[in-house]
Structures are given as structure tokens and as C-alpha cells.
Amino acid sequence: MTPAAGTLREGLRLGATTFTVLPVRPAAVSRDAARVAMATAALYGALVGAGAAALALALRATGAPDLLTAVAAVGLTALGTRGLHLDGLADTVDALGAYRDRARALAIMKSPEVGPFGMTAIVFALLVPVAAVASVLGRPWWAVLCTLVAGYAAGRAAVTWSCRTGVPAARPEGLGALVAGLVPVPAAAAATVAVAAVGLAAVPHRVWQGPVAVLAGVAAGTLVTWHVTRRFGGVTGDTLGACVEVATAVTLAGLAW
Questions:
Q1: Range of the domain at 199
Q2: Which of 41, 61, 108, 249 could join 156 in a cystine, given CB atoms 3.0 to 4.6 angstroms apart?
Q3: From CA 176, how far away is CA 219, in angstroms rounded?
Q4: Does a structural domain hold residue 26?
Q5: pTM
Q6: Which ranges of 98-208 does DSSP label H, i.e. alpha helix?
């Protein structure tokens, strides 16, 4: 096996263990493998969204109420990622809401406790996707599939942008230090275009709405990264989780509008 092929394999494994609960062997962690993992992050979001769509369509076929179906589908996405991104969102919002200096805010973010700001953020991060999924279940099956695939892939594409060249890490250690500044901008742009293409089929009779929703979601996640970089000096694993949740919620809301 060539070094490039080995790096690709390790990077895909690292992405799978970072973004999903797929039962794969842990990858050898390196900056090169992390670059592959972050550049292909949207792929894992697509897998999570496809799994949620399969459950939602199966429950719809049994006549289950739309709201219960949506709760089950969104719950599956949380289980499929071990709730790591929700935890990151809560920690990030708690740190931002504390209005402390950079060192103290980073300490709050690292604390295992979840404060009221974080709990509120988690509630919204779950309610928005539930409402969005419930509202699209009347669409054709392929539109439901593309909505969920595009929504959850967009959340991870936002992470790809958040790990682009030039974005620093807030700490010298941790996930942020491993992945910050790794992904070339053309790779992030290509991932976004691919997700936007899936969005073309998400909203019947308004093909433009899907790509617009994807771009809005990715932009929202990138805005989160800009803000935390200004506030904390860079990204951390927690802020990347916040980026995922914000981008996913905005994209799904746009797809369901």
C-alpha cells in the first residue's frame, strides 16, 4: 500500500470514529489523517442523515404520527454521534454566556457541567430539527431522504470550513489543535457544492431552495467559528460541535420552510 493510500484509509477511519458510532477500528491519529477526516466530514453527515431518513420513512409507512416520527429520527442522529456535537454546543454556549476572559471561558468550556445556557441551546438544537423533519414528512420519499441527507451533511461541511487553512486552534492540545487550519479552501468549497447538489431534490417544485438552505447553514456554522475564534483565539473540539449543530438546524429549517 502506498503512503497516500494508507493516509486516506486512516483518515476515513478517523472521520468515522469522530463523526459517527460506526464500529470501525480506531485510526492512527496524525495531521495528515485528520486532514482527510475533516475534508470528508460531509460524507459522515450524509450517512447519519440517510439513517434517520430510513427510520422516518419506515415509521411513516406504518402510519406513525409525524411528530413522533420526527422525534425518533432526530433521536437516532444524536445516538449515531454519541451526542458529542450537542455536548460541544452546550459547552461552547456556556463559555460564551459567561462573559469571562479567554482563559476562564476556556476553563468553563472544558468543565463537564452543563449550565442553563447550554441546556437551552440543546433544547433548541433538538426542537428545530424535530419541527423541520415533521414538516417535510408529507413530501415524496426521495425528497425526505435528500432533506435529511443534505441537512446533516451541511452541518459537517461547516466543520470542513471551520478547519480550513488560516483558522487557528484555541489551545495547544486537544481536537482543535489537531484539525485547525488543515483543509484547503478548494476542498471545503467542493464539499459544499456536493451537499448543495443533493439539496436540489429536497424541495419539490422549488429546486433553488435546497442549495440556498445548504449555503445558509454552512454560512451560519462558519459564522459561529468566526465568533469563537474572535472570542477564544481559535477553535476547539467543542466549538466544532457547536458549528455542526447550528449549521444543521439552520439548513433543516431552510429546507422545511
A1: 42-256
A2: 41
A3: 20
A4: no
A5: 0.93
A6: 102-110, 116-136, 141-162, 175-179, 185-199
Residue-level length of the chain? 257
The tens digit of pLDDT for each residue in 214-255 reads: 999 999 999 999 999 998 889 998 899 999 999 999 999 999
Contact 88, 238 (CB under 8 A): yes
AA identity, residue 42 = A
Asked whether the beta carbons of 35 and 13 are under 8 A apart, the reply is no
| Distances 24 to 9, 31, 36, 49, 151 between C-alpha atoms, Å | 11, 19, 16, 19, 24
Closest CA to 146 of 156, 136, 155: 136
| DSSP code at position 233 | S
In the DSSP assignment, the letter for residue 184 is -
Provide the number of structural domains found in the chain: 1
8 part of a folded domain? no
Check residue 3 and give its pLDDT.
56
In angstroms, how far apart are the furthest CA atoms of the chain? 53
Helix, strand, or coil (residue 99): coil
- Nearest of 235, 221, 171, 167 to residue 191 by alpha carbon: 221
- The residues of the chain scoring below 50 in pLDDT are none
The three cell numbers locating residue 52: 434517520
Q: Is residue 109 part of a domain?
A: yes
Asked if the structure places residue 35 within a domain, the reply is: no
CA distances from 254 to 15, 116, 210, 214, 249 (A): 27, 27, 8, 8, 9
Residue 247, φ and ψ in degrees, nearest 5: -65, -40
